[in-house]
Amino acid sequence: MNLLSIGASYRTADVAVLERLAIAESAVPDLLQKLVAQPYVGEAVVVSTCNRVEVYAAVSGFHGGLGDICNVLAEHSGIPASELAGHLYVHYGEAAVQHSFRVSSGLDSMVVGEAQILGQLRDSYHAATEVDSAGRLLHELMQQALRVGKRAHAETGIDRAGQSVVTAALDVAADHLGGDLTGRSALVIGAGAMGALSVATLTRTGVGPLRITNRSAERADRLAEAYGAVAVPFDDLESVLGQVDIVVSATASTEPVLTRDRLLPVLASRSPAEPLVVLDLAVPRDVAPDAADLPGLVVVDIDGLAASRRALPAAAETAAVEQIVAGEVENFLGWLRGAEIAPTVAALRTRAEEVVSAEMRKLISRRPEFTEEQRADVSRTLHRVVQQLLHSPTVRVRQLAAEPGGDQYAALLRELFDLDVPLATHANAVPEIGGNS
Question: Which of the following is catalytic: 41, 50, 53, 397?
Fold first, then answer.
């Protein structure tokens, strides 16, 4: 099996495409099952955020795996595969490992260095674990990606540029509201992960008073209590919209929450000098397309943030993280190369044990006068001799196999000792990193 990552992000697709590709949390298990049911896909993890949708997979062939995953995404999104292909990026083998580590460390984020992606990756990995779509290879990739992300934030200043997409969106909002958001009234629509992050960020910024609304009143109440905000009924949304300067909308709704009909009376009651700034961080979008250009309304969505690309970190910090990623990629590839030889080494030891057992049977048949104790002594001696003979070569071949080009050693051993190692066995056997197997 080889690693393959396929996805679309703010770099390759606009919000219109991303919102069609977006995968609701409740739909993830079914999509994962569809992926691993494909002929060339053995494992799968799906990541769906406000600005990216990615599939990480272990596949038995590049072209077959690519076709399988594209077909599943096309069916899910309703976008023809031929059209969807123009929005997708593809990484295979080493490039897939590198991409996953760059994503986890925040190098591929809209706001470079944001740490939110770590939680999103963790949630995606857990979702795959729950439906058993992540096998040994993706278990290790995801675990190492999460570790690399934590290391990047702990050892560099990459996250000083901005903690999240919310931070960047508020920077854009400030430009439309005189540059300072302190004391500005705000409303957060949605009490999920992005909504909670928005509330936390707004609170740190000094925005207030702060209101929260959500279709589930209980979740809004809990979030408001945690941050000293005020929860308002979702049915009162129109009246609250007329009382705030900033709206952050981050729901999981499949239909626009802020429609033209809902916004028109709100804007009519406001002073033209005081625009209503809406930060639409939802995918699919919460602001209806036909409402985005209404007078007195400023909409900042994922496309707008991608165009602004604010708060990029210093080049030195980016370079430091790139260096961490490069070293970790090489470590992972070394482990992967070493993993390829493990089934061959196991087959060699099995062959040696079979030879010892065969010779013992011959000896016993020729020397029936041997007692059980004598037979046991001879058997132990033979096994020790074989183990001592194989120890140094097998340890050394593992070391050599972990180096670049090391895959040749497994093939050489199989050829020299005429070992029959099924392809599926040595392709899927992935030992623990740092383990002895």
Answer: 50
